[in-house]
Q: What sequence folds into this?
């Protein structure tokens, strides 16, 4: 009888099929994902008849006012609703006074909130201020 220990070859796990599956999953999720900028803040814009303004999303400062009067600058909520807080937040963007300031005010938002934004932005020096609306 021959009881010699046969040398076993070490087991090798091929990673190629696993890498292929991972790349296919990555491509699948990239293709099925939508890449649209949708705000998390629910705002019902007022209706108006007019032409759509061309805008470059990278060079726009967006200030949103929800129906309770809360302010959001580029989808980041401000601490409170005071004019001083709004002024400090807009001062942070004062070096970009030439970029458009788009105000997304809810149709049911208090008018005083929109007037406060206009007044504060004008005092800081913003020149290009626009209200966002939806077509009738």
A:
């Amino acid at each position: 009888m021959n009881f010699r220990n046969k040398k076993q070859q070490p087991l090798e796990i091929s990673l190629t099929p696993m890498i292929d599956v991972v790349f296919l999953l990555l491509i699948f999720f990239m293709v099925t994902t939508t890449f649209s900028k949708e705000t998390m803040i629910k705002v019902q814009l007022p209706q108006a008849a007019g032409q759509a303004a061309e805008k470059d999303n990278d060079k726009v400062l967006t200030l949103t006012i929800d129906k309770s009067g809360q302010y959001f600058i580029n989808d980041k909520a401000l601490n409170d609703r005071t004019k001083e807080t709004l002024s400090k937040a807009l001062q942070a963007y004062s070096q970009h006074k030439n970029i458009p300031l788009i105000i997304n005010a809810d149709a049911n938002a208090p008018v005083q909130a929109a007037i406060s934004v206009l007044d504060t932005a004008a005092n800081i020096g913003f020149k290009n201020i626009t209200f966002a609306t939806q077509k009738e």
